[in-house]
């Protein structure tokens, strides 16, 4: 423990590999951030304004958009400043705040997708009891646990990470991540792996297993039905499937990337792969739900253009 140093600042070393490409990268990321904020705000406004969209499925979509705003608003401003800065030091308090927000954003995403999967399961497998099982009280209860459980879980996890004794301050990433802090701690690798495994089980494995189970039940329920019914079910579930697959792939890439030696990977590829986790879902979700679902698409066109598309 005598060799451990209490670092008041962390150094985000991956920015050093961006070089003179920082200016076009800044413009592109700024436009991307503006699009994320605008698109998700439109989704939230449309669903909140239109009483016909005050149904569980659309309310959960609004939760997804709100979560995208939550994660992006904390990540992008700091990231954009770092792109133009020559130094990339971040204070301990700012770093751990960023860890908490980014990982609560990720946890909220998967818990919201989980209750959306349950909503689709009830709609397909118990259509006659849908309004009873997905009452307003049930929706609020599911939303409460979808927000509160990850917050409590991440609060405990962040406190554990904050108390780790550190033997370095270089984080090879463009934002603070819990595994990078664990890697520069003075604990042995076996202890680090146990901490990471417990976090992964509580934050990812259980919600992912529940989502896969609900869709297995949906597939079984539709297996013996007509192609017309299968088509309606697929049309209803397709946007959610895209969101779930996108989140699964980007989170897997982020997890796998954290276990690799990034110095052996092309720096631009490493930066792009590390950003997918916090960029692609907030960009893709409003496009998928806003364009694919006709009810939302119709009201968006009416709000923006003053008319309904054919």
Automatic annotation (TrEMBL):
Residues annotated as transmembrane: 23-46, 58-80, 100-118, 139-162, 194-216, 237-257, 269-291
Compartmental location: Cell membrane
Alphabetical list of SUPFAM superfamilies matching this protein: Family A G protein-coupled receptor-like
InterPro entries: GPCR1_Superfamily_Member, GPCR_Rhodpsn, GPCR_Rhodpsn_7TM, Olfact_rcpt
Recorded GO CC terms: plasma membrane
Family statement: Belongs to the G-protein coupled receptor 1 family.
Name of the molecule in the record: Olfactory receptor
